Amino acid sequence: MTQIQDVMTEHPVTAGELTSLAEAARVMRDGRHRRRARRRRRRTVRHPDRPRPRRRAMAEDKDPAVQAVCSTPPVTVRPDDEPDQAADLMREHALRRPPVTDGDRLVGTVTLGDVAIEQEPQSPLADISTAEANT
Questions:
Q1: Exposure string for 54-69, b = 16+ CB within 10 A, e = fewer
Q2: pLDDT computed for residue 53 by the predictor
Q3: Closest to 82 (Cα-Cα) out of 107, 114, 104, 128
């Protein structure tokens, strides 16, 4: 049986709570990282998943800190969860990329695309998720 640990991205890049959104965006762009979690003392404490608060924060302040757009506590999945469980959680909380945690330790991220590839490999979302990135 497939588990989240089989489809997740390991070694996620993180940002400090006072990192500016512009700096976080540059790191993601330059490193081709899919997302960032916000951590304090090696524990995931907030997660910037939803784009609307990010855009609003950028519009209201030229360069707010990451903490301005993060939810606390984050909604997370476990490495031993099944993709169906993650999909249900993502649907319930309107998340696209929940962090994967083992206790308090951030171990990866999983995306809607990761779950789609596993659940419905012929779906348009799975096709898009496996396509070469536009650069």
A1: beebbeeeeebbbbbb
A2: 56
A3: 114
Neighbours of 2 (CB within 10 A): 12
Q: What is the homologous superfamily of the domain 4-130 according to CATH? A: CBS-domain (3.10.580.10)
- Residue 99 identity: P
Query: Which residues on adjacent β-strands are paired with residue 9?
Result: 109
Give the whole-angstrom CA distance, residue 37 versus residue 15: 6
CB 76 within 8 A of CB 44: yes
Tens digits of residue pLDDT in 13-41: 777 888 888 888 777 777 655 444 444 44
Question: Residues of the chain whose pLDDT is less than 70?
Answer: 31-62, 71, 133-135
3-state secondary structure of 77: strand
Helical axes 83-93 vs 112-119, angle rounded to 10°: 140
User: What pLDDT is attached to residue 6?
Assistant: 92
8 A C-beta contact, residue 77 and residue 110: yes
Every domain of the chain and the residues it spans: 4-130
